[in-house]
Specification:
Blueprint lengths: L8 H17 L5 H7 L5 H13 L3 E3 L7 E3 L7 E4 L14 E5 L12 E4 L15 E5 L9 E6 L2 E10 L2 E5 L8 E4 L5 E11 L4 H8 L2
Parallel strand pairs: 3-5
Antiparallel strand pairs: 1-2, 3-4, 5-6, 6-11, 7-8, 7-11, 8-9, 9-10
């Protein structure tokens, strides 16, 4: 799929919702129903994504018809790849997408899997190096010893997960870093997802370009 035809996370969410509605109701939704179903406060905010889907060839709109959206069946294979952002900035936002990867060309993966580039060396001894592309499943419940992406006080981090007696320990795999410990019910901690795979890029110049975004 050409780069200009790839969907952002928000566009894919709208496209998937429309497809699901058509399959359930055997008719297309109205703009108001899409907006309400996805929780948009204003239809105008959602129409931006509708127009993008039309432009990219995923749907057609028939003017002057209330249920005038026609889904063009296309299988999306790319997943969004996010960069690390400073604390307090929305992590999984469209503005933080730095790349796309055609993951589903090669393996079957849940619909909401996303990618994340490793930064730093805190997981070096687990063979996770700067520039590696991690695949994250946000629906997979982490088990002790698995590697996760977490938000601690709003700051994203990749660490090994342990939970014991109401305490979560996020363990680095590099002795120069200390573990992070938080109460299991603390608002300081959010599990973003569990790492289910990775790819190592050979083109270091491309990695440097991405990490400086």
């Amino acid at each position: 799929m050409a780069k200009e035809n790839r969907l952002t996370a928000a566009q894919k969410r709208v496209y998937d919702w429309i497809q699901s509605y058509v399959e359930r109701m055997n008719m297309s939704p109205t703009l108001a129903e899409i907006s309400e179903g996805l929780g948009y406060r204003h239809i105008s905010s959602m129409i931006v994504h509708i127009n993008a889907l039309v432009k990219k060839g995923f749907i057609k709109r028939h003017p002057n018809i209330a249920r005038g959206i026609e889904v063009i069946r296309r299988k999306t294979t790319s997943i969004p790849v996010y960069g690390f952002v400073p604390a307090g900035v929305p992590f999984l936002s469209d503005e933080n997408i730095v790349d796309n990867f055609e993951l589903r060309k090669y393996i079957s993966a849940p619909s909401n899997v996303f990618g994340l580039y490793v930064r730093g060396d805190s997981m070096r001894d687990a063979a996770l190096y700067e520039g590696d592309l991690l695949f994250i499943d946000p629906t997979k419940e982490p088990q002790n010893g698995e590697i996760i992406v977490a938000l601690v006080n709003g700051d994203p981090t990749v660490k090994r997960y342990y939970r014991d007696n109401g305490t979560i320990t996020l363990k680095p795999e590099n002795k120069k870093y200390t573990p992070i410990m938080v109460p299991a019910q603390s608002e300081q901690f959010t599990c973003v997802g569990t790492v289910i795979g990775l790819i190592r890029r050979i083109d270091k110049r491309r990695i440097d370009q991405i990490l400086t975004v």
